[in-house]
Write a structure and sequence with these properties.
Elements: E1 2-3, E2 10-11, H1 31-52, H2 59-85, H3 92-112, H4 114-129, H5 139-171
Antiparallel strand pairs: 1-2
Length: about 170
């Protein structure tokens, strides 16, 4: 790979003249430089493709999704705490932990695997309405996705906080 010093275009190693500005090209880049530049170009292309894809997972979705996965683990621990360590006690803390678990799962699915969730929606629509394959989410579906993620995550956090509060007051 060669880099044009005048216009900054990347050219093939077999070229001697830049196709963009007709400037003479110098020596080829080292393999390390070429690999780094190719990686940067691939990342830019992938980013551009994701900007146009309504089903792509953005940075905020990844953060909330990963926090939801952590919330799933804490909710399971709290449910097991109430069920096993508190001698089969079924009280508000246990049910709050289970509710938080369900909401964290929904939040994680919508945040990290919306393409799969959308495929399930499309499958249900096809079964009932018998429509074609070119179904894409509407703006309303995308807004609903964001509202679902934020609502489920927030309510699950509150429920988990109450479950932890019950556990602390119960053991004290």
């Amino acid at each position: 790979m060669k880099l044009c010093k005048k216009c900054g275009a990347y050219q093939n190693d077999t070229r001697f003249v830049c196709l963009d500005c007709n400037e003479m090209l110098g020596d080829s880049l080292s393999s390390d430089e070429a690999t780094q530049i190719e990686g940067e170009l691939r990342a830019k292309i992938q980013k551009k493709l994701n900007e146009d894809d309504p089903l792509a997972v953005n940075k905020t979705d990844r953060i909330i999704g990963n926090m939801s996965l952590f919330g799933i683990a804490v909710s399971i621990f709290m449910a097991l705490f109430w069920r096993l360590l508190m001698y089969n006690v079924f009280n508000e803390g246990f049910y709050l932990a289970l509710g938080a678990l369900v909401l964290f799962i929904i939040s994680a699915l919508y945040a990290l695997a919306f393409r799969t969730v959308w495929s399930w929606h499309v499958l249900m629509i096809r079964i009932h309405a018998r429509i074609g394959d070119d179904t894409e989410p509407s703006c309303l579906s995308l807004i609903e996705r964001k509202i679902t993620i934020i609502f489920c995550f927030t309510v699950a956090l509150v429920m988990l906080a109450f479950a932890i509060g019950y556990a602390i007051s119960y053991t004290a």
